[in-house]
From TrEMBL:
It comes from Methylobacterium aquaticum. Residues 7-18 have a biased composition (Low complexity). GO terms for biological process: proteolysis. Residues 1-30 are annotated as: Disordered. Residues 126-248 form the MPN domain. InterPro entries: MPN, RadC_JAB, RuvA_2-like, UPF0758, UPF0758_CS. This is MPN domain-containing protein. GO terms for molecular function: metal ion binding; metallopeptidase activity. Gene3D superfamilies: 5' to 3' exonuclease, C-terminal subdomain, Cytidine Deaminase, domain 2.
């Protein structure tokens, strides 16, 4: 009887890849000590480079493999930790060693980051927590592959009523209809708005189309008692505030 094994998998009882056998005893794979040291550095509050922080995330999903080359490949492909966890699933799967379970873990990290950032602005007066608003907008949209147009609806005390994505477009355009924006604000009894959209190119500089669209919304909203506090554009390279640039 011929005993067959599946290529790429160890036989039952055989050591996992990366484990050396000497005198009948399996040595710990070299990356185990690295994992312990990296966890200890994290616990001590060390500032880790992006690829090492990414390794910490990969440890659980890939327990029996050296994940440093995978982490470095991800950073090389996408640029940063934030861009890795924000990357589309299909592009993540192009990296050798990345499977569905890893993608799920990365997307959990992305969702957790957004929820944490949103928690910093919920139930607060947004105009007094402007840094938290910017952090939230960047976490939600800065690394999206397509343009998104988001609205933050505020009450009379400038607290967040709702946060909604009104439209998704191409890499450089999202259709926005001022009357639809105002109609939704009236439905929610909002008295103020913060407009937000992203530039996938990374450069947050407002375009002439961005400026015109913002002024069109202000023109429709103003007579109905709805104030547009700001329009924020976010990108990988930073953010731009129409209020700060004196465009509104």
């Amino acid at each position: 009887m011929v005993r067959r094994t599946t290529p790429g998998f160890a036989e039952a009882g055989a050591p996992a890849p990366g484990i050396k056998v000497q005198d009948g005893k399996a040595d710990e794979p070299h990356y185990h000590g690295h994992r312990d040291r990296l966890r200890a550095r994290f616990a001590q509050g060390d500032t880790l480079p992006d690829y090492e922080f990414l390794e910490l995330v990969l440890f659980r999903a890939i327990p029996r493999r050296d994940v440093k080359p995978i982490a470095k490949a991800l950073i090389a492909r996408f640029g940063s930790f934030a861009e890795v966890i924000s990357a589309p699933a299909e592009r993540l799967l192009e990296i050798d060693g990345i499977g569905p379970s890893v993608v799920t873990d990365l997307k959990i990290m992305e969702a957790a980051g957004r929820r944490l950032a949103r928690g910093a602005v919920a139930e607060r007066t947004l105009l007094s927590s402007w840094a938290a608003v910017i952090d939230y907008c960047r976490a939600a949209m800065a690394f999206a592959q397509r343009e998104e147009f988001r609205l933050l609806f505020l009450d009379k005390r400038n607290r967040l009523i709702a946060d909604e994505v009104q439209g998704r477009g191409t890499v450089d355009h999202t259709p926005v209809y001022p009357r639809e924006v105002v109609r939704r604000a009236l439905e929610l009894s909002a008295t103020a708005l913060i407009l937000v959209h992203n530039h996938p190119s990374g450069d947050p500089t407002p375009s002439q189309a961005d400026i015109k669209m913002t002024r069109d919304i202000i023109a429709v909203a103003g007579p109905l008692g709805i104030v547009v506090h700001d329009h924020i554009i976010v990108g990988r390279d930073g953010h731009a505030s129409f209020r700060g640039l004196k465009l509104i």
